[in-house]
Amino acid sequence: MDKFPILSRFQYDCHVKVVETDVGETITQLAMNCASHSIGIHVKDQPGKVLRVRKTSDTDDQPPLRGDITVGEAGLIMYDCVDVYFSDPES
Which domain holds residue 68? Predict the structure, then answer.
């Protein structure tokens, strides 16, 4: 599958990153891919927390996307922006 770029706003990272993804990648895989560009570089890891992904909105209130759905199922397209953030496992 051809890769395409999305924009990743990772929690506590002051930089927006361009990250490659494809429609068959799961949201969990996307979160890990985004994390590899931020954790240990601009952001400290938070062991025991899980990564969540939501579509970026003006009010930052979009619900998290399920980790088991694909990028294609989530409707993400080229240069969409997502927020990746740490969360408690039970939330």
Answer: 4-87
pLDDT tens string 3-41: 999 999 999 999 999 999 999 999 999 999 999 999 999
Looking at the 3D structure of the chain, how many domains does it have?
A: 1
CATH of the domain at 49: 3.10.20.270
Which are the contacts of 75, defined by CB distance < 8 A and separation ≥ 6?
Answer: none
* pLDDT (tens digit per residue) in 25-84: 999 999 999 999 999 999 999 999 999 999 999 998 999 999 999 999 999 999 999 999
